[in-house]
Design brief:
The complex is a heterodimer of chains A (882) and B (181).
Chain A lengths: L2 H18 L3 H10 L4 H15 L3 H4 L4 H10 L10 E2 L2 E10 L2 E8 L7 E7 L8 H14 L10 E4 L5 E6 L3 E3 H8 L3 H20 L12 E4 L4 E3 L4 H5 L30 H17 L15 H5 L3 H5 L1 H15 L11 H13 L27 H10 L7 H10 L4 H10 L14 H15 L4 H18 L2 H18 L4 H16 L3 H17 L7 H16 L3 H17 L7 H15 L3 H18 L4 H16 L3 H19 L4 H17 L2 H19 L5 H16 L3 H17 L10 H12 L5 H7 L13 H16 L20 H15 L7 H9 L6 H4 L5 H10 L1
Antiparallel strand pairs in A: 1-2, 2-3, 3-4, 4-6, 5-6, 7-8, 8-9
Helix pairs in contact in A: 1-3, 8-10, 8-14, 10-13, 13-14, 18-19, 19-20, 19-21, 20-21, 21-22, 21-23, 22-23, 23-24, 23-25, 24-25, 25-26, 25-27, 26-27, 27-28, 28-29, 29-30, 29-31, 30-31, 31-32, 32-33, 33-34, 33-35, 35-36, 36-37
Chain B lengths: L1 H11 L4 H22 L10 H12 L7 H33 L19 H14 L1 H11 L5 H8 L3 H19 L1
The chains are: A mainly alpha (882), B mainly alpha (181).
């Protein structure tokens, strides 16, 4: 490096260091403001560009040295080159893999000038039956001759006992890479896939099962034809004695069938699952999640909605291909297509537009709060392009295949599958252990087995913690997530999984009632996400935005929440993910933030859009019930009572369907409706409804004091009071207050208002206990009494009255309605106000005397008014008039 | 076994030549250890850099008497030694390939995928370039890649906060990738 270059790089490094010190938000500004020479800027740009690029070999703590060391260890020079095996001579090494080494070989027996690939298996891979068994198996494999199968040319056993296999060299690309590159339409994909299925069918006719179907075993050659690799090889290799360990350690997670993890012997159904998994990957962009139970597999179209590849095929999936996939991937092998031919037939029917045999699956979705998706940093499509550009004559993909096998399936995935394997001795024979138990024992095993590997430990515990959080085992979730986060921090490298763990921990804090803490965690997660190089349109970051918006709403910062929500929606659009389940969440929080800023009409429009979006995505999802609840309340506030009532009714029905009748969520919505009944049908109807609900709430929540019950009792008291059932109202108010007092301290903030209710009622009865209660509840404001709720108004006046009795005078400001318009008990209250006005402002505002006499005329005043010395005048006047 | 410890302490006391002696000792030990591990035929053996380096550490040092600074020097030497050993082997093999006239497809070349490590010799050249810009960055990369140290371990041995080390690592990483081109 010459001096000029060196100085340029040094300068660039200095500036780079400066930028790294800043918050990501300020980096762009700072960079724009920096002055530097052109060559320095060029260097700095290169440095900056590398920040976003993932380099697994450098970043993930992978022991890169092992790979180099292995490479340098490969064939002490000359050992195998030139070696002869059967009619073949080794010319060189093509690659090294999990099953053995692959060499390029040439035929030397003069029969033909042929070049092929020779796979040398490990010496211990001969099965129990040894050489004879090997010969038998390879004879069977050699019989499979099919245009789409990479067959067996030759096989043998070397003098030292090492078995070997010879196959044709194939010049092609992995099928998923081919699909990513050519972006074929759905029909094209299915047609290509049918070639694979045909190959499998051919093998099955020869009584050979593949056992290891996955994209890396399927090549597409230069003619666009499919070539299926490694048929039955798995069988040969794993023929080794059981003592080497459970068979499923060699399985590929995501593609292997569930029963394979229980050491079930492979059958044609195993291959059907493999075919389904392959098609799933091609159509949705992701391998299927291995089902752990009969109702576990998500609909492929929903998976596809979250992936760039998948959205291309979304319509077709929703049309009917979902069903084909789910039938092929059924947890119970007996539920799958019986033969590959049946699968082929159904797909041909689909191509022809005729009805399918696959029946629709049952619906059973779990409540999902987050969509979790992690992308691996390898740009598979780029591989093909790069190698072509490098001008390598004919990419020998079997070599690459061998290499990829060497990238061992991580212990982590093995572990997950192990966790759910029924063969686990921890569990009672034949019983399905409850998921929480699985998770808990999983967590402790993870801690034990992976103590020395922080990254794996962290990822596992993060997954387990999320599952526990979703199930509501908060204490367990906290423990798992805290440990996961600690392990991530020890590893120190920012990754998407770390982001998710911290975000989940935040939501846990929220579940515990601490939105401020939740927000802090979410912001921390955002920082990690940025450091991990996640793009702003990545699912994890969008989710973070939505959750942060929700927390800002909880913390009363609606303007900020609105901004965050809008930003999230923009990014969802940018990512082309309008069908993503997170979108209704974003719309709902936007609507809430608008409402809190008083922009109700705007909020309504957004909420209606949320309803529409949720209807399209998942109409039976619990979120829909929440949306309807919010919609109903908003319509009520906008005065559209009829629509409000019917919407709330729909919300209640939805809640009933999801949660059942006697469930806190359903009852919460019903309580909302009960309170609104006061406006729609009058206080008596409202009171009756509350009376009906209270026993159900007790059944749902138990008999221990609970803030929801306190609130409902308080509402009942108000309703009864307004309906004129004064004594019953007082009784309910007493009950509410007593229960409030029995609540744990941190729950009391939402029920303080009950003091106001009881205080006012006692005040009206001239009860001395009123004073303390009225002091305990401070209304939000005492200005503009005429516009406040009656509770607030009464509390303000009562407090002012009591203060007046004590000699202080503070009149709550109001623009009182004309006395003729005042009816019912309100006449007492406004009379009190006029009297206060008179006393406190010395003589009172204009018309005070007239108002007082009008309001007091011809009736018996309640004791609290009559007894006061202030009303002596009024009393006197009235008496005088008689 | 004792005198590496003494040597490291004298490095700390300010004698730079002791570092060379330390390096020489570490290098020869690591080479023997690596050779022993790599001589097995099977393609399955993984050569853990961390394990090797720690083995060498145990062999050569009296851990109780080394403080953080000494340990840092040791591991810095070990990382450099490890790099040297591997580069030597890679060069030998490359020479053999060229000499024999066979176009063997290297494990690393055909792929462009960034999840696979680049050619060792390319990394070696890039590290020399990084060294010209800032030797501290080079040392950081070496210790992470060749001695398998985690950022936390590095923070501990350099007496810095994790945040600081992470930032230095960001710089080192960026510079390395830039020089790899």
């Amino acid at each position: 490096m010459d001096v000029a270059d060196r100085d340029a790089w040094r300068a660039a490094d200095r500036l780079f260091a400066e930028l790294l010190d800043l918050d990501p938000a300020r980096q762009a500004d700072r960079l724009a403001g920096m002055e530097m020479a052109d060559d320095v800027r060029a260097c700095l740009n290169i440095l900056l560009a590398s920040v976003e690029q993932p380099h697994a070999w450098l970043d993930d703590g992978v022991d890169a040295v092992s790979a180099w060391a292995q490479a340098t260890a490969a064939e002490p020079p000359g050992t195998l080159r030139g070696r002869r095996l059967g009619s073949w001579e080794i010319e060189g090494e093509l690659g090294r893999g999990g099953m053995g080494v692959v060499y390029r070989v040439r035929r030397i027996d003069g029969v033909a000038n042929q070049v092929a690939a020779l796979k040398l298996l490990g010496i211990d891979s001969l099965g129990r039956e040894g050489a004879a068994g090997f010969r038998r198996e390879t004879d069977i494999l050699a019989r499979i001759v099919h245009p789409h199968v990479v067959g067996l040319l030759d096989a043998g056993i070397a003098e030292d006992g090492t078995p070997w296999l010879v196959m044709p060299l194939v010049d092609g690309v992995h099928i998923e890479v081919w699909c990513d590159r050519h972006a074929p339409g759905t029909r094209e994909v299915v047609t290509l896939f049918l070639q694979v299925a045909a190959a499998v069918a051919a093998a099955h006719r020869n009584l050979v099962i593949h056992r290891d179907l996955k994209p890396s075993n399927v090549l597409v050659d230069r003619d666009g034809q499919v070539r299926l690799l490694d048929f039955g090889i798995a069988r040969l290799v794993s023929g080794a004695a059981p003592a080497t360990g459970p068979q499923w350690r060699a399985l590929t997670p995501g593609y292997a069938a569930p029963e394979q993890f229980n050491d079930a012997p492979p059958t044609t159904a195993t291959d059907i699952h493999g075919l389904g998994a392959l098609l799933h990957r091609l159509l949705t962009g992701q391998p299927p999640r291995v089902a752990t139970g009969p109702h576990d597999a998500p609909e492929p179209s929903r998976v596809a909605a979250t992936d760039a590849t998948g959205t291309r095929h979304l319509r077709a999936l929703r049309d009917d291909l979902d069903r084909v996939l789910l039938k092929a991937l059924a947890f119970d092998p007996g539920q799958r297509y019986g033969t590959a031919d049946e699968l082929i037939d159904d797909l041909r029917r689909w191509l022809a537009g005729r009805p399918l045999l696959a029946t629709p699956p049952k619906r059973g979705y779990r409540l999902r709060k987050f969509v979790s998706r992690h992308r691996v940093g390898v740009a598979a499509a780029a591989v093909f392009v790069v190698t072509l550009a490098a001008g390598v004559a004919g990419t020998l993909w079997q070599a690459r295949q061998a290499r990829l096998q060497a990238v061992h399936a991580t212990a982590m995935k093995d572990f997950v599958l192990d966790l759910f394997a029924a063969a686990n001795p921890d569990f009672t024979e034949g019983q399905d252990p409850p998921a929480s138990q699985l998770l808990k024992s999983g967590a402790s095993r993870v801690r034990g087995e992976f103590a020395a590997r922080p990254l794996v430990l962290a990822e596992m515990l993060g997954m387990i913690g999320r599952a526990q959080l979703e199930r509501g085992s908060l204490v367990d979730a906290e423990s798992s997530l805290d440990q996961a986060i600690e392990a991530f921090a020890r590893n120190a490298v920012p990754t998407a999984k770390w982001v998710v763990a911290v975000a989940d921990r935040g939501m846990l804090a929220y579940e515990r009632g601490d939105p401020a803490e939740a927000l802090r965690r979410l912001q921390e997660a955002e920082r990690i996400g940025l450091a991990a190089g996640l793009a702003s349109t990545d699912a994890e970051r969008i989710h973070l935005l939505v959750r942060m918006a929700e927390m800002q709403v909880e913390l009363d910062r609606s303007a900020i929440a609105e901004q965050l929500a809008r930003s999230a929606l923009q990014r969802i659009d940018l990512a082309g993910a309008r069908e993503a389940p997170i979108r209704p969440d974003a719309l709902v929080v936007l609507a809430t933030s608008l409402q809190y800023q008083g922009r109700r009409e705007a909020a309504l429009a957004v909420l209606l859009e949320a309803e529409d979006a949720q209807q399209r995505i998942a109409p039976n999802h619990p979120k829909m019930a929440v949306i309807l609840n919010d919609l109903g309340l908003l319509l009520h506030r906008l005065g559209r009572h009829g629509e409000a009532e019917s919407t709330l009714q729909r919300a209640i029905e939805r809640h009933q369907a999801i949660y059942g009748l006697v469930h806190p969520q359903t009852l919460h919505v019903m309580a909302n409706r009960a309170s609104l009944l006061r406006t729609w049908r009058g206080p008596a109807a409202s009171a009756r409804e509350y009376e009906r609900l209270l026993p159900m709430v007790e059944q749902a929540l138990g008999s221990a004091p609970h803030s929801q019950r306190v609130n409902m009792l308080g509402q009942l008291a108000v309703a009864r009071d307004e309906a004129g059932e004064r004594d019953a109202a007082l009784q309910a108010a007493h009950a509410a207050w007593a229960m409030h007092e029995a609540l744990p301290a941190e729950q009391r903030s939402r029920t303080e208002w009950v003091a106001g209710i009881l205080g006012v009622m006692l005040f009206e009865r001239d009860d001395p206990a009123a004073a303390d209660l009225l002091a305990a509840y401070v209304p939000p404001t005492c200005e503009g009494l005429e516009a406040r709720s009656s509770l607030t108004r009464h509390v303000c006046i009562a407090r002012a009255w009591l203060a007046g009795n004590a000699g202080e005078c503070a009149l709550p400001p109001a623009a009182p309605p004309p006395p003729a318009d005042v009816v019912g008990t309100e006449r007492d209250w406004w009379l009190a106000w006029w009297l206060l006005a008179g006393r406190c402002t010395g003589g009172g505002p204009a018309g005070a005397d007239a108002a007082v006499s009008a309001l007091a005329e011809g009736r018996e005043l309640p004791p609290w008014l009559a007894a006061s010395r202030w009303s002596a005048g009024a009393h006197g006047d009235a008496a005088a008039k008689r | 076994m004792g005198d590496i410890t003494e040597l490291l302490r004298s490095v700390r006391a300010g004698d730079p030549r002791s570092l060379d002696v330390v390096f020489a000792r570490v290098y020869s030990t690591l080479r023997k250890l690596a050779a022993a591990r790599l001589s097995r035929q099977s393609g399955e053996t993984t050569l853990g850099a961390t394990a090797l380096v720690h083995e060498a550490y145990l062999k050569l040092c009296d851990a109780n008497r080394l403080d953080l600074v000494d340990r840092h020097h040791f591991f810095a030497c070990a990382a450099r030694a490890m790099r040297q050993i591997l580069v030597d082997r890679a060069r030998a093999r490359a020479a053999l390939k060229r000499g024999a006239g066979i176009d063997l497809v290297s494990l690393m070349n055909v792929d462009g995928v960034v999840s696979r490590p680049p050619e060792l010799l390319d990394i070696d050249a890039a590290l020399d370039a990084v060294d010209a810009v800032d030797p501290v960055l080079r040392e950081l990369v070496e210790m992470r890649v060749f001695a398998g140290m985690t950022l936390e371990e590095l923070a501990e041995s350099r007496g810095q906060s994790l945040r600081t080390v992470n930032r230095h690592w960001q710089r080192a990483r960026a510079m390395l990738l830039a020089q790899l081109g």
